[in-house]
Amino acid sequence: MDYAFHFYNSMAETGIMMALEKCLGETDAPPVVLCIGSDLAVGDSLGPITGTMLRRRPEFRGFVYGTLNAPVTAKEVKYINNFLKKTHPFSKIIAVDAAVGEDSDVGLVKVSNQPLRPGSGANKRLGKVGDVSILGIVAKKSSFSYSVLNLTRLNVVYSMAQTISDALSALSSLKKHDLPKSVNE
Q: What are phi and psi of 64, to 5 degrees?
């Protein structure tokens, strides 16, 4: 099942949180948020910015991989899957990534109960990751996707990351996982 919310909508955070809650189902284990991307292109930085924002939230109760300081790029997905399954065997993995789409879809945050395939907008054939995915449509798809990602407005990416991190933080505080504070430090 897929859900879509425009990040400018004042109810987007609540909608994303509710969609994630439905996709994740009941779980006692804290969530793992895998934020994929790079700060080398503004449009590809949605994941690392989201991860950085989550790490700075003391109320977030979960694990975060992929920040501006330590990004997880699409190339590392084949290694990170095994790592996450061994390190967090009972946790659901929420994968966050930027995407390109139709012109009318720019600004949408899509939540799906399916894994995502990072790099598919740049025609890369990489493995799937996550139990649940969050995709932020940051630019219009074109044959020059990488160039488009470099021309994406930072305000769009930053605002989307804020909305996504707010929803993830609110979701984790509802679950009340008993984690040491050092998880996010």
A: -125, 130
- Cα–Cα dist 130/80, whole Å: 10
Place of tokens 């505080």: 173
Are residues 135 and 110 in contact, defined by beta-carbon separation less than 8 angstroms? yes
Say if residues 67 and 55 touch (Cβ distance below 8 Å): yes
Q: What is the DSSP letter of 36?
A: B
Q: How many CB atoms lie within 10 A of CB 7?
A: 20
Pick from 101, 116, 107, 97: nearest CA to 148:
101
- State pTM to two decimals: 0.90
pLDDT digits over 122-154, tens only?
667 778 899 999 999 998 887 665 556 667 889
List, as one string, the DSSP characters of 133-181: EEEEEEEE--TTHHHHHHTS-HHHHHHHHHHHHHHHHHHHHHHT----G
